[in-house]
């Protein structure tokens, strides 16, 4: 059930100003394409679109060092020298500086914070900020395309304003390190990250032994999965870990980071999932939100670097789930014709990748067995479950 029959869609065209460079893999065109697909398919009413505001200095400072905030603002000036900001993780190949960076990332953080307020206040049951999901940003360091950690800003806000107990689910292919470290000692913030093992993938963290510290011990849960993991094994890990953990933790609100870079098309990762997981995972988190916290669910975007074939389909399916829309089998012809003119590859016609779309993984059985063992180790090492 959806309150008022609708969910909040946090969006501004200004979100596309969070852009590092023309050839940088973090391409905001994916937001335009997804919004256009959602509109073309008729899944978005004008009154569902909520304009975000910028997060304030005080709101950002709940999770970021004030010296770092000053550095970001200085690096946002048109004549800033990238070499002056390396200490803060800025001006790197991954996270170059650009004019207006502070304003652009503050707006994204404010958008996720607004989504959380709308849900916590009961105005909306679910809210989506697909520009959000900047999960790598740390307290005093930009990292992995992420400047301000919008998720952490919003979590800290609901912790302070509402005293809420928060569950954070991260199903991006990369470990949700920034959110984890910021709340590593907080027993009222459960962080769960399922990701490709950090053996060969940025940021290299997210090992099973990272479980939290002090009173927060046991409330950081990591499930590093093998490279070339496919749908069944991925979803087995999702269901086996997320469902019992959330049910036992009993949160007041759930945040879900919906990075869609576990798809086999993604150029930056080594997983082998299809779009089927992007239909199933939002369903699980929405049902958990209904079961455990009166529906309070904030969804954000995240990674996803095949902007043509994966991101628009994945996040349209996410939005459809939040609104109870029945997904059609095919993408609208008008949308395909419009974007195929720009696309560097043939656009898929179906939301769900048809069977046989991808080559079989030779080590499938071995990968599945390793992942099953990992899941058992994760569950056995999570003390509050017992």
Automatic annotation (TrEMBL):
GO terms for molecular function: histone deacetylase activity. Residues 24-321 form the Histone deacetylase domain. The keyword Ligase does not apply. Keywords: Acetoin catabolism. InterPro entries: AcuC, HDACs, His_deacetylse_dom, His_deacetylse_dom_sf, Ureohydrolase_dom_sf. Signal peptide: none annotated. Pfam families: Hist_deacetyl (PF00850). GO terms for biological process: acetoin catabolic process; epigenetic regulation of gene expression. CDD domains: HDAC_AcuC_like. Pathway: Ketone degradation; acetoin degradation. Belongs to the histone deacetylase family. This is Acetoin utilization protein AcuC.
